[in-house]
Amino acid sequence: GRGGGGRGGRGGFRGGKKVFIEPHRHEGVFIARGKEDALVTKNLVVGESVYGEKRVSVEEGETKLEYRVWNPFRSKLAAAILGGVDKIHMPPGSKVLYLGAASGTTVSHVADIVGPEGLVYAVEFSHRSGRDLIGVAQKRTNVIPIIEDARHPHKYRMLVGMVDTVFADVAQPDQARIVAINAHHFLKNGGHFVISIKANCIDSTAEPEAVFAGEVEKLKQERLKPQEQITLEPYERDHAVVVGVYRPPKKSEG
């Protein structure tokens, strides 16, 4: 991947002031409290940055733990967390199908969150981004890179098991359909989805709110039941993240 481990060495950011790490309410996500607060994940590959991000080292007794700063301007998921999303549905040990993995920037943080017991199936169509993604997966063995078109999940059905959560950031006009067909293949009943929707990718002439509402309707028709929706201001313009449940068991409906 881009950017070796150079920047932000020991003691992490801004002149080695004392930094305290505290758990965020999303399990596997943390906050580094120092001169400035930062969202961080526990580095699965200590001593290395993935894309030039800063690292923060903290000593707990004898052990040295390292965390990577997670920039909300570079990650829709980080933006959603800082925007107060209620649930991300990726606790340690979970299996996530990540559609639109790009170069693996956010994927690397999801891999940190789900940890060594979890798995991230990362689908990316672009071969150029895919090369970086494969580089991320060489170090993070819980990432399985899949260089395929997410519109055709049958092409990678032999690689992907059933998952707990589908995350999508594909920025395609038929995104709802792409998520649905992958959910039908791989998402367990009662599993969850987290989708980033870029309004002008779907309809650049309509109001973003109308676009989001239309996408939510399409999801509902595919048994993907939205539970919350937030915008990503101030990190992204005209983006929303929708979180919900797939084919919820009957008793929890109503």
Automatic annotation (TrEMBL):
PROSITE patterns: FIBRILLARIN
An MF annotation (GO) of this entry: methyltransferase activity
Reaction(s) this enzyme catalyzes, per UniProt: L-glutaminyl-[histone H2A] + S-adenosyl-L-methionine = N(5)-methyl-L-glutaminyl-[histone H2A] + S-adenosyl-L-homocysteine + H(+)
Cellular compartment(s): Nucleus, Nucleolus
GO annotation, cellular component aspect: nucleolus; ribonucleoprotein complex
SMART domains (alphabetical): Fibrillarin
Annotated keywords: Methyltransferase, Nucleus, Ribonucleoprotein, RNA-binding, rRNA processing, S-adenosyl-L-methionine, Transferase
Record GO biological process: methylation; rRNA processing
InterPro entries assigned: Fibrillarin (IPR000692), Fibrillarin_CS (IPR020813), SAM-dependent_MTases_sf (IPR029063)
Function recorded in the entry: S-adenosyl-L-methionine-dependent methyltransferase that has the ability to methylate both RNAs and proteins. Involved in pre-rRNA processing. Utilizes the methyl donor S-adenosyl-L-methionine to catalyze the site-specific 2'-hydroxyl methylation of ribose moieties in pre-ribosomal RNA. Site specificity is provided by a guide RNA that base pairs with the substrate. Methylation occurs at a characteristic distance from the sequence involved in base pairing with the guide RNA.
Sequence similarity: Belongs to the methyltransferase superfamily. Fibrillarin family.
Subunit structure: Component of box C/D small nucleolar ribonucleoprotein (snoRNP) particles. It is associated with the U3, U8 and U13 small nuclear RNAs.
Protein name (Swiss-Prot/TrEMBL): rRNA 2'-O-methyltransferase fibrillarin
Lineage: Eukaryota, Metazoa, Ecdysozoa, Arthropoda, Chelicerata
